[in-house]
């Protein structure tokens, strides 16, 4: 009887490892979507002339005071390269990237 239980352990271990890998993969995916700048179906915009950003529904133009980020400089996740970059910058009324005014 002990011979049969030894045969079952490798299968149980492999199944357990597979389940653990699946749980890890799903939890990693959940984290990466949780820290997205905008929800699915939205895109990020930046405030003109000051700090701040917002999200607008795909297909809808930003409201007055906001513009789309410059092409190739769009933050996708909190803390990514472009999110960090825009912490100290904004765009002016002409669409040029400028430093934030002091104190903002």
UniProtKB/TrEMBL annotation:
<protein>
    <recommendedName>
        <fullName>Lipoprotein</fullName>
    </recommendedName>
</protein>
<feature type="signal peptide">
    <location>
        <begin position="1"/>
        <end position="36"/>
    </location>
</feature>
<keyword id="KW-0732">Signal</keyword>
<dbReference type="InterPro" id="IPR058119">
    <property type="entry name" value="SCO0607-like"/>
</dbReference>
């Amino acid at each position: 009887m002990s011979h049969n239980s030894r045969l079952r352990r490798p299968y149980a271990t492999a199944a357990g490892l597979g389940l653990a890998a699946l749980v890890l993969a799903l939890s990693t995916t959940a984290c990466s979507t949780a820290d997205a700048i905008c929800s699915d179906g939205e895109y990020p915009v930046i405030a003109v002339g000051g700090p701040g950003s917002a999200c607008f529904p795909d297909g809808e133009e930003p409201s007055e005071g906001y513009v789309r980020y410059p092409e190739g400089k769009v933050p996708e996740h909190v803390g990514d390269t472009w999110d960090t970059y825009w912490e100290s910058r904004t765009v002016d009324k002409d669409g040029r990237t400028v430093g934030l005014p002091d104190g903002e």
